[in-house]
Design a protein that fits this description.
The protein has helices at residues 4-15, 17-44, 51-83. It is rod-shaped and about 60 Å long. It has 85 residues and is mostly helical. It starts with a helix and ends with a helix.
Length: 85
């Protein structure tokens, strides 16, 4: 009963499933590396402004969370299609 647009959306989400997981993992790694780098800079220079950098790290983590959510959604669609419901 799905429309053509909905069917294309589902197929595109299933094709991108692994991409969502990879982007999520890469984003988390980048956020951890940046946090460590900014922490190191802060230890060496107490005047180093950490606030704006913390916002960047949080935004990267939020993006990773959204990509992980899309991966889980694609996994759910895949399981749903396999059951033939």
């Amino acid at each position: 009963m799905a429309t053509d647009t909905q069917q294309r959306f589902v197929e595109r989400a299933l094709r991108r499933k692994k991409l969502f997981l990879a982007i999520s993992i890469v984003g988390m790694v980048i956020a951890v590396v940046l946090a460590a780098y900014y922490g190191f800079r802060r230890l060496n220079d107490p005047t180093f402004p950490i606030g704006p950098r913390a916002v960047i790290v949080v935004l990267i983590l939020l993006n990773s969370r959204q990509n992980l959510r899309q991966y889980r959604f694609a996994s759910f669609i895949e399981d749903y299609k396999k059951k033939g419901v």
